[in-house]
Design brief:
The chain is of the alpha/beta class. The chain is built from ten helices and twelve strands.
Amino acid sequence: MPPQRFCPACAAAEPVRDHEPIWSAGWVCRACGHEPNRIDGVIAFAPELADTLSGFDPRSFDALSRNENGHYWFEPRNRLITGLIRRHFPETKRYLEVGCGTGFVLRGVHQALPAAAIAASEVHPAGLIHARRRLADAPSVTFLQMDARHIPARGAFDLVGAYDVIEHIEEDEQVLAELHGALAPGGGAVIAVPQHPFLWSAVDDLGHHVRRYARGELENKMRRAGFDILFSSSYTAVLLPLMAASRMRRERPAALDDLLKREYDVPPWLNKLLRGVLQAEVSCTLAGLRWPAGGSRIVVARKPVR
């Protein structure tokens, strides 16, 4: 079956030709003539959710965009994600990222897969403002406002990614099923989530998390969605004792602004030290070491060829 996109109004399927984007800025349904809503020129498949408190506070994007570059947690994680993509899916031609946020990971993936056509979705236009600016020099990237629980495409992508996204969504298994359906047979998925319920704190409450994943939980849910697991490991394993102590001992931030200040205002010397530790951890992971425990879990999987 060729790649297909679906009209959100009439559910009609359209085949997608080779070298054609799954969605383009001017797309209109051939069957019913439906033209999706647009927000700042971006196709909006779920405009009713735009910049609402749907799993995330859109006010966080400005602080994220200012602090991701050089941050001890974000930069090594990017290297881990892109390293796994290069290893497992180097021939990717079409890539979908759900919950692309400010585009920090998206930028790294674009650099790792420069020939790939990329579809980047985010339910919050406030995040897409930053992502579009960050990828302004990448014409192969199409941006969408979309609910990850309803992806209007089937068999369309070689690779899908969701990085610290599905823990914000109550129906995480529905999202995994949608990602599986959007993949072509043999296509891959890279999913990252926060790990260990015992680490739950005000950071999770103010971050609008629904859950932290128990060890093995994400893998089991992905198997139920139809995936075969290729790789699984923790991230922030070396710093787990410090993370646990921080979550348990620090006072609850009174509001989102307090949380953002606490998370990002790291002294430069400490940021450099922690970044070096996590870069060394990532080097060990990419060399073959698997960490049983850590602040996050990252899983690489494949949709079987039937």
